[in-house]
Write the structure tokens for this entry.
Amino acid sequence: MDMDDIKAQVKAKLGQLRSKLNSVPILQKAEDKVKIPKEYLVLVGGSLLFFLFFFGIGAGSICSIVGFIYPAFKSFEAIESKNRSSDVQWLVYWVIYAFFSVIEVFIDFLIYWIPFYYAFKFAFLLWAMLPSTRGAKYLYDSFLKPFLKKNESKIDAVLNKSKKTAAKAAQEMTKVVAEAKED
């Protein structure tokens, strides 16, 4: 294989990529604005994301943005639509997202030691949010729903106790503030 054959193959692959990207209007707008072919924009953007994930630079922020922005927009669309099945999908996604976010807070010190954690988290978020995979629904139906149903009374008791403790703390803080104002 000589260099001309390689160039021809690369050009053919870029042409295939371009034809797939033609259905994405925002890429056409970006191409018109910056005068760089959309296939190059996607390749550079993908390479940049890969680099950031590989070296862990801003990977947590990227995961948070991906795990929040697209689902938030789709949730808004679901709320505004008459189709209630999409509401269920996004409610389930947010329950799963919240559950894993809480777990992540408690195991944060371990996350540092897991290689490529954010790459796996990114893949997990995509799997959980995409309507074609319905990963969040699978996790909810298979694991989280049975767990919550089994422990519902215990969870309610802890929440009620926490509510009373928070109310008592707020009341005490109000007293302290009122006394401080008097002095």
Summary: Residues 36-137 form one domain. The chain has nine helices and no strands. The CA atoms of residues 24 and 38 lie 10 Å apart.
